[in-house]
Amino acid sequence: MARRKQPTARQERLGSELRKLRETAGLKGRDAAALLGTDSAQLSQIEFGTAGVSEERVRRLAAHYACTDTKLIEALVAMATDRTRGWWEEYRGHLPTSFLDLSELEHNATFRWDVDLLHVSGLLQTEDYARALFSTRIPELPKNDLELRVRHRMQRRRIIEGATPIPYEAVIHEAALRIRVGGRAAAQAQLARILEISEADHVTVRVIPFALERFDDTGSSMIYAGGSVPKLDTVMRDGPHGTTFIDSEAQLGVFRTLFRRVEAASLDPERSRELIHKVAQEL
Hints:
Elements: H1 9-25, H2 29-36, H3 40-47, H4 55-64, H5 70-81, H6 97-107, E1 112-116, H7 127-135, H8 143-156, H9 158-161, E2 168-173, H10 174-178, H11 184-197, E3 203-208, E4 222-225, E5 234-239, E6 242-246, H12 249-265, H13 269-282
Parallel strand pairs: 1-2, 2-3
Antiparallel strand pairs: 1-4, 4-5, 5-6
Helix pairs in contact: 1-4, 2-3, 4-5, 7-8, 11-13
């Protein structure tokens, strides 16, 4: 099988999960490679996602590693045999790979949680709001690149607007609602969009109000995507130096706790809608 020059985040995740199983079993790379009848270099490529792996080999490795989690094994087999060429592939070579990796992550997600403190969550954004945000980038984006990013972001909304939407929960700070991104008209249209989509049965929007006496989780902005099994959940965070995908079980547990803590600090959905209405009238 040809070696991949640039594996996707999903391909890398499959390899890392196989590596975790091997390490849990206490086996060295050379020992696992021998069980497959290959060498350490080939196994290393599989574990780094630069080489594919067949269903038969995934099952053999899981058996050798004494993995009894059948749901996880089936999920890994599905990842190994997935040949989906998603809508995001049209952007390959035109947008950063992290944009495409996020789209693929969302495509395979079983649920989605967002926490945003200064901006409206990407899946809830209008075109004008997204365009205004991308326009603030330094250095400034060429017009064509900017419009590609806007179009890509709008297409990502299909996971909550399409024929088979996934459960979606968003927690947004009141600050994000009051910042007039793109000007007053764009900000009002953005609030109307949030109110509209929040009426869907699979969407829950909560707001953290300024009136909350104490809120210390100022660093808790996140995207949490549920996997087909909990061990395949993923957290994505944006930072000054790029996008980070987090998948260690310990860290996933931390972010699950953070989300529940932020959720508990927010208003219930009905009171959140009332606050959004109020903010819209005051803009």
